[in-house]
Amino acid sequence: MGVMMLARMIPEATIDEVQNAVNIVDYVGQFVQLKKQGQNMFGLCPFHDENTPSFSVNEDKQIFHCFSCGRGGSVFKFVMDLDGVSFPEAVAKVAAFGHVDVNINTTDNRPRESATVTRQKAILAQVQKLFNHLLVNTAQGEAALTYLHGRKMTDKTIEHFGIGFAPGDDQMLRKYLTKEGVSYEEQRASGLFVDRDGGQLASRFTNRVMFPLRNERGETIGFSGRVIGHQDGVAKYLNSPETELFNKRDTLFNLDQAKAAVNPDKRFYLFEGFMDVITAYEAGVPTGIASMGTSLTREQITIINRVAKEIVVTYDGDLPGQKAADRALGMLQNTQHLQYSVCLLPDGMDPDEFIQNRGADAFKQQLQHVLTPIAFRIMFLANGVDMTNDHDKIAYVDAALTEIARETEAVPRSLYLDQLAERSGVPRDALAQQLASTQAGPAPAASGQDDPFAAWDDNDIPPAAPSGWVAEPPAAPADYGPSASVATTRMSRFEKAERALLYYMLTDAETADLVGADAVEFPHGLYQGIADQWQDYRATNNDDLSNFTTRLTDEEGETVAAILATSWPPVNTDTTEGLIKVLGGNDLRTQLSHVKEQLQQAQRLGDQAGQTRLANQYFELMRQLKA
């Protein structure tokens, strides 16, 4: 459930009361040492590791923003991100800090589940206790218990994960549940049984060690059963089918326990299977999670992005494990704020093999040796490459340099070049030279006759905004300010104009009125959506920006926080009208690009009349854009 929906569950008057009672500087100051500089205060961001503070708080606007990781919003968003809690819980925490007496329900912040779902959860919880009892306390479970002990699994671990045993009698569970008053329909819907001829139910799980699958709240929603030892023709693992409770696409094994573990860094380890999670737990790593026997899914990534600051992909070190890690990294690259890396165990070992051979301490130490995504790709791309074959080596180097080109910072880029030189045998200087040429792009045409418009750079069309108009992150002391990589992030002139106009709309009522009267359209849907919501908000509320952000999505709220944290020139009529003119020129720019393509095509075809006509159109559009 998004912030907007949760915000609607609390009366606006309550949100306003809490927000007005607590200064964001005071609340954030509990966790971040802030230094005043101009209108902002700076400190080390609590959401990621950094040496140069890029986390800012604006006391006037009651907004925070990090120039490095991009997080930002109101004091409630700060609490949600820092503590991993819901919006109602964040409001309650801020209220308690400000000694505001409010009545907020922080537990029932999701739609009430149906009676059927509640009943199924109760049934599975009862079955989990039965399986655990059969494993630990009966003769039927002795072989399974011996097997687990043989794998160095302690009784404490068995209890922690609620592990059990399903006996060979495929009618035992049906008889037990029937005696307990569970109906045929309820048994059939539980996922614990398969249908036989005539509609008779038989246990899905027999002679298997049973691992309960729990949701994020620790409620049993299904099971995974493992055969004892090896049995020909029998699947090693068998999961519950998808039911009203269980969907493997949005289930992460051990997420509930991993969240509950003491983990100030919010670093989680993603393993291939739940036996790896259990083995890691026994080695003293309680924050392991695993997908359900399948590749990582979008739904699981969404969950990880919500609860974690960092995820370390810790798959087996063999080639299949590396391929799985590469797929996982490809999906993780679209997440926001989440740091991710790879830990590959040496010699192709899985966690269990590593711990058995080298011990728990060595395992925990190995988990600290992580590869960045680019470093991993440099290594992974070398698999199967014959470095004695020049063709293969060149193809590998080209692919690896493409990865390195993604890095914008000089130091890590230099380290990656060292790694590639060592792996490929190509001199580092040659790699650096090719990387520079790759980043520079193709060389320009040799003469103006080959491209009659080579002298015109569409990106350099002067803006209509006043001369010298530049937006910058706020000034800060040498040790306190946004990092260069963020401060120099490039965006198009039109996007800069959109952000500037939004800033003036948000901070100046006359600009907001002017934009509304002129029906200005923003090229990017994100900015248009924020502008529309601000106009609607102003119609029925005061101009409280911090309160406004509680009604936005995470992306919208963080965008607003970033815009408000940027230092812009003072607003005036010329500035506003100039920005509106720039945005109005976006259509002209599109036309310009289209005409340029047509002109180049006419040149290739030798169409002199077409060239003359299109050239006149091109220069007329250029004139209008410069006007």
TrEMBL record:
It comes from the Bacteria. One of its GO terms (molecular function) is zinc ion binding. The keyword Nucleotide-binding does not apply. It catalyses: ssDNA + n NTP = ssDNA/pppN(pN)n-1 hybrid + (n-1) diphosphate. SUPFAM superfamilies: DNA primase core (SSF56731), Zinc beta-ribbon (SSF57783). Its cofactor is Zn(2+). Keywords: DNA replication, DNA-binding, DNA-directed RNA polymerase, Magnesium, Metal-binding, Nucleotidyltransferase, Primosome, Transcription, Transferase, Zinc, Zinc-finger. A zinc finger (CHC2-type) spans 45-69. GO terms for cellular component: cytoplasm; DNA-directed RNA polymerase complex; primosome complex. Its EC number is 2.7.7.101. Residues 434-461 are annotated as: Disordered. It is an enzyme of class 2 (transferase). GO terms for biological process: DNA replication, synthesis of primer. Binds 1 zinc ion per monomer. NCBIfam families: dnaG. Belongs to the DnaG primase family. Contains an N-terminal zinc-binding domain, a central core domain that contains the primase activity, and a C-terminal DnaB-binding domain. PANTHER family: DNA PRIMASE (PTHR30313:SF2). Monomer. Interacts with DnaB. RNA polymerase that catalyzes the synthesis of short RNA molecules used as primers for DNA polymerase during DNA replication. This is DNA primase. The lineage of its organism: Bacteria, Bacillati, Bacillota, Bacilli, Lactobacillales.
